[in-house]
Amino acid sequence: MTQPSSTATAAALDEGNGSMTLSAPASGGSWDMQIFPGTEGPSVIDVRRLYADTGLFTYDPGFTSTASCESKITFIDGDEGVLLHRGYPIEQLAEQSDFMEVCYLLLHGELPSPKQKQEFEHAITYHTMLHEQMLNFYRGFRRDSHPMAIMCGVVGALSAFYHDSTDINDPYQRMVAQHRLIAKMPTIAAMAFKYSIGQPFVYPRNKLSYAENFLHMTFSVPAEDYQPNPVLSRAMDRILILHADHEQNASTSTVRIAGSSGANPFACIAAGIASLWGPAHGGANEAVLMMLEEIGHKDRITEFIARAKDKNDPFRLMGFGHRVYKNYDPRATVMRKSCHEVLDELGSRDEPLLALAMELERIALEDEYFVEKKLYPNVDFYSGIILRAMGFPTSMFTVLFAMARTVGWVAQWTEMIEDPNQKISRPRQLYTGPVRREYLPIDQRS
Ligand code: CMC
Questions:
Q1: CB of 326 closer than 6 A to ligand 1?
Q2: Which of 179, 243, 322, 367 is an active site residue?
Q3: What pTM, to 2 d.p., does this model score?
Q4: Residue 98 annotated as catalytic
Q5: Which tens digit of pLDDT belongs to each residue from 293-331?
């Protein structure tokens, strides 16, 4: 990167007045900027007029210090390890609520009354089937396609089948699109799985809960009766709650950016799924399991910890570290407890893997490198172990994340569409390429 040409200093921060003055000694200029407080978390400096007033942009790759929007949905205090949805702590929601209620809360801002909950569940149930013609789509994919590849394609294709819910300016159509996306995602995910193992698609059953229905579509076969296990259904529901939303992460920001141009909600959620797929984001739960299998035995933990610390080795401890959490991810605590419950229920062969994960966590949390950089287990560290014990192949892990996160994406997309300050997302850049030069015809080039 280029060296700084001059420095600007924040000469005065007036908390009482809610403003900040930026001075640039080189030019002698000074500019006042407003500071907006949030209900929780840091205040923000309003830089919207910065370019117009000063001719300067801000530079913040990865948005480490940039609030891209105003939101009332989810709050994270990364230092304290706090996650609130509409003000409610994630631990309380995971223990006392259920996924349908959390969906309602994220979308509407308040917990539902019994009548509202029943109506919402009915609306979701009503939309669980896929247009029959969509089933042909699956048959176009190779049998060994990654289910995330199928998800990206099939979810994007929803806009080709549900034309009556793509007008983003019609609140009714927006609501129907919300319901369709939340309702159809388990069906789409389960069908991706069934296709990959060559079993017949299983249609949704409306009398089952959201989590039970997903397990039924994934694990039942037409030839047999299927009774969802209540411990596994509860664990599935909790996994969905823990992944439901996480403020302005990469995939959610992708959904908002795609939607800022006025694209339809199905296309925007497909963009979010693509972003989630990466190993630094939703793909990490798959990577954790592969890492644990590669480590194989607790005697090899120190070797892998050393590799994670080695700057010349690209290996990172998967499931550790987070852009926002500089403390234990509160979702990981719930996930670890859930992991014990599931493995106890199944008497699973995955017990040694859980023991290995816990030993890895213990050693890493005592290691100076991880302590100093505040790297703690994140939600993905334990989720893979539960999912594998429940019978999901690793390739389905990120698919489950996408299914759960759909409600968060949809809630954030709706908030953006309804925000009067919303503009098309169009960041600027620090240009360091060639300055203007004249075109040289090919016969004059050496
Ligand atoms: N193992 C070893 N070192 C790490 C790790 C790790 N897992 N994570 C961060 N570091 C180091 C990193 O090398 C850097 O060191 P230095 O300051 O010496 O250059 C420092 O810690 C800060 O890391 P960063 O990469 O600058 O931080 P970031 O906020 O850009 O990245 C992260 C956050 C989650 C991408 C990263 O911690 C990571 O790659 N973790 C492993 C993948 C993972 O578990 N992802 C799931 C995230 S939670 C679920 C989700 O949101 O999707």
A1: no
A2: 322
A3: 0.91
A4: no
A5: 999 999 999 999 999 999 999 999 999 999 889 998 999
255: its two tokens: 């959904």
Helix (H, G, I), strand (E, B) or coil at 66: coil
Those residues whose C-beta lies under 8 Å from the C-beta of residue 86, and which sit 6 or more positions away, are 72, 73, 74, 105, 106, 109, 110
Active site residue 322: yes
> What does residue 152 show for φ and ψ, rounded to 5 degrees?
-55, -45
How far is residue 409's CA from residue 406's CA, in Å, rounded to a whole number?
Answer: 5
Rounded distance from Cα 241 to ligand 1 centre (Å): 24
**Could you give the CA distance from residue 62 to residue 438 in angstroms, rounded to a whole number?**
34
Token pair for 406 = 């759909």
Instruction: Take residue 319 and report the two structure tokens written for it.
Output: 């499931």
How far apart CA 274 and CA 283 sit, in angstroms, is 11
Q: Which residues of 17-43 are buried (b: 16+ CB within 10 A; e: fewer)?
A: eeebebbbeeeeeebebebeeeeeeee
Q: Give the C-alpha separation, 360 to 300, whole Å.
A: 10
Ligand 1 midpoint to CA 255 (Å): 22
For ligand 1, is residue 318 a contact (CB within 6 Å)?
yes
